[in-house]
Design goal:
The chain is an alpha+beta fold. The protein has 8 helices and 20 strands. About 30% of the residues lie in helices and about 30% in strands.
Length: about 325
């Protein structure tokens, strides 16, 4: 059986599931929103997960596809508040054990690689022979203001995207140009990651899966709001997106990087500058792939499903 760990609202997973159904591959999907009612560890041999009136023995699972996802427990049943933090710690230790056991099985994507350190990845990319933007981290406004005069700079989050929603609007911290006035207002918001702005011909989003590359070129520079970060398109993308082939040496260096990071599936963002250089930006280990099918006609759900099918059939032979 294939276990899919994902998010409830991730519709792209449904496209992969359609192929698994067609191939008659047994599977079960557990989303982060699924509440695990009980976990039973029987003499360290059998591990049973109980949820939604289902009892799942993890020995039934032969292949795992991790696409976000988590195992969550309902702490509302704990009536004595002083025990909540202790129970949460105990739950996290138990969950860690279950995840370790699960990911000893054949898998695509990993719970243990769900977070990557952006600065470390840039460092490893540079050591893998890839071009990366000049990057600096500043801890105070005075240090940063000294270079603002002569450089065209952009800023992005060191970790995950900032996202603030209210009744009127949603503010998301995509990559943006450095504005002195904004920084003067936000003097206490440091540390901050600053990179030299790279004038681009186009952006490249590459989907990597076990040494294979599926890429599309994104011509987002035509519009001001997407010229720095194509993700800042609003409701509907208004840029051109076409299939693209990375140069062999760039693919080789990227493959080297992904192997060093022990990531077997994920999305990679690059920029092609005005001189034709491919500049590495970052990795998303969740492997977002919806846009490939919709805008570049690359059927990644089919490719992923066939990877899972091959893993399942290989394990089933023994």
């Amino acid at each position: 059986m294939v276990l899919i760990l994902s998010e409830n609202l991730d519709e792209s997973v449904n496209y992969v599931i359609d192929y698994l159904i067609e191939y008659k591959i047994p599977f079960i999907r557990v989303n982060s929103q699924t509440i695990i009612d009980e976990i039973i560890v029987d003499n360290l041999n059998d591990i049973l997960l109980k949820f939604n009136d289902i009892t799942l023995n993890i020995n039934q699972i032969t292949v795992i596809w991790y696409h976000r996802g988590n195992l969550n427990f309902n702490f509302e049943n704990i009536k004595i508040s002083k025990y909540i933090e202790h129970v949460k710690n105990e739950w996290n230790e138990l969950k860690s054990y279950v995840m370790i056991k699960l990911f000893q099985k054949n898998h695509l994507g990993s719970y243990f690689n769900r977070h990557v350190n952006k600065l470390y990845v840039l460092d490893m990319a540079k050591n893998s022979g890839l071009k990366v933007p000049d990057s600096h981290v500043f801890l105070n406004y005075s240090s940063l203001s000294n270079i603002l005069i002569s450089e065209k700079l952009i800023t992005k989050s060191i970790g995950s995207l900032y996202n603030d929603s209210n009744k009127n609007k949603t503010e998301v911290g995509y990559t943006s140009k450095v504005c002195i006035k904004d920084l003067e207002i936000k003097k206490n918001y440091f540390p901050i990651l600053i990179q030299n702005e790279i004038k681009k011909k186009f952006e490249v989003r590459t989907f990597y899966i076990e040494g294979e590359f599926y890429s599309c070129a994104i011509f987002s520079q035509r519009y001001e709001h997407t010229s720095i970060d194509y993700r800042n398109f609003g409701i509907e993308p208004n840029f051109k997106c076409v299939p693209y082939k990375l140069p062999n040496d760039v693919e080789g260096n990227l493959d080297n990087l992904m192997c060093k990071l022990n990531i077997d599936i994920g999305s990679i963002d690059l920029i092609v500058d005005l001189s034709g250089n491919h500049v590495f930006l970052e990795i998303n280990p969740f492997g977002q792939f919806g846009m490939f099918l919709e805008y570049a006609n690359i059927n990644l759900p089919y490719i992923i499903a066939n990877k899972l099918k091959a893993k399942f059939e290989k394990v089933s032979k023994y």
